[in-house]
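A quick word before the example. In earlier lectures we treated sequence and structure as two separate objects. From today on, think of them as two lines of the same record. Here is GNAT family N-acetyltransferase written that way.
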Amino acid sequence: MSDAPLHLVPVRSREAKDFVRTWHRHHPPPAGQIFAVGAADERGTLRAVAIVGRPVARHLDDGATLEVTRTASDGARNANSLLYGAAWRAAKALGYRRLITYTQDGESGASLRGAGWRVIASRPPRAGWHAPARPRADHGNDHVTRLLWEAL
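And the structure line, produced from the sequence above:
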C-alpha cells in the first residue's frame, strides 16, 4: 500500500456500502445514511470511506446529533483520521452540534484520537436482540464492550 497523500472525495451511498462490504472487518454496511465521504489517492483510487447517519441509539437521536456508523479502509495510512475529521466538519456545516461513534473492545481508537475525538463513555456488552419468539441475527457487536466517542 502506498503512503502517498490522500484527499477527500464525495462518495455515493451505493459505492460507500460496496466499499464497506469489501473492506470492513466485522460489520455489514449500515441500513441508511445522511452522507458519506471518501479518501482517494493521487490516482483517484478510493482507499477509505466513512458513512454518517442518524444515531443508532434512539435516545441519542435528538435531531442535532449524527453518528459515524461505519468507516472502512484498505489499510491506507491516516485514512480514517482524515475521514473522522472531515465527517465532523461536514456535520457542523450541515448544522449538527454533535457527532459520535463507537469502537469495540480491542480497537485502539488511534484514528479517532488523531482526529481530535475523545472517549465519553464505556458501554457494557449487550446480550443481543435474539429471543425465541423473535429470532434476530447477530450483527457482530453483541457480547462486546464498546467505547462511545465524541468529536471535539
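Notice the following. The two ends are 30 Å apart (CA to CA). We will return to this example when we discuss secondary structure assignment.
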